[in-house]
């Protein structure tokens, strides 16, 4: 697992309009959409102890629940931390997804599946409560309807009754976001 260092820091790149993490030897470009960032995201901030704890938790979840490489685990976990830390809260958009009455998930399952009328996708739960969950798409993309498609690492908030467990371990392909 890629270990965080004390000199890591988040910054917003004005030229590319991207949220980035300076990781000493290289810069990680997150998939956060500039239009959805909280105002304070444009300030340079340290990769905090809380960020490192979230990173470690997300990494462990992905490593345990998906059949992916260490590099992809790190990419997913860092994007999850960035999404949770810097994205504006949004209203649920559950209407894109089918209800999952018969498929109950174990509360420890954080890698889940959602189905639209068009397609199904694999998601990581970023944050949740009894009613709603904010989820990040792990699949390469997912068509929600004729006009709307989610891209890998984009987040959406949904009702809990839209979430289904994965039937078996899955592999996730990663895209570069440079």
From TrEMBL:
Alphabetized UniProt keyword annotations: Cell cycle, Cell division
InterPro entries, per database record: ZapC_C, ZapC_N
Source species, domain of life: Bacteria
Cell-division protein ZapC N-terminal domain location: 1-87
Organism: Catenovulum sediminis
Any single Pfam family the record assigns to this protein: ZapC_N
Domain Cell-division protein ZapC C-terminal, chain residue ranges per copy: 89-168
UniProt key word Mitochondrion: no
Name of the protein in question: Cell division protein ZapC domain-containing protein
Coiled coil regions in record: none
GO annotation, biological process: cell division
């Amino acid at each position: 697992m890629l270990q965080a260092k004390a000199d890591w820091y988040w910054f917003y790149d004005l030229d590319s309009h991207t949220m980035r993490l300076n990781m000493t030897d290289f810069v990680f470009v997150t998939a956060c959409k500039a239009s959805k960032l909280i105002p304070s995201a444009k300030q340079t901030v340290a990769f905090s102890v809380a960020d490192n704890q979230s990173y470690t938790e997300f990494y462990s979840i992905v490593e345990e629940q998906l059949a992916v490489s260490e590099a992809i685990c790190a990419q997913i976990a860092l994007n999850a931390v960035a999404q949770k830390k810097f994205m504006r809260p949004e209203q649920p958009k559950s209407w894109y997804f089918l209800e999952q009455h018969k498929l109950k998930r174990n509360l420890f399952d954080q890698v889940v599946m959602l189905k639209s009328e068009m397609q199904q996708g694999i998601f990581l739960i970023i944050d949740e409560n009894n009613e709603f969950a904010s989820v990040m798409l792990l699949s390469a993309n997912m068509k929600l309807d004729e006009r709307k498609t989610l891209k890998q690492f984009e987040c959406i908030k949904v009702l809990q009754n839209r979430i289904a467990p994965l039937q078996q371990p899955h592999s996730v392909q990663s895209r570069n976001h440079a």
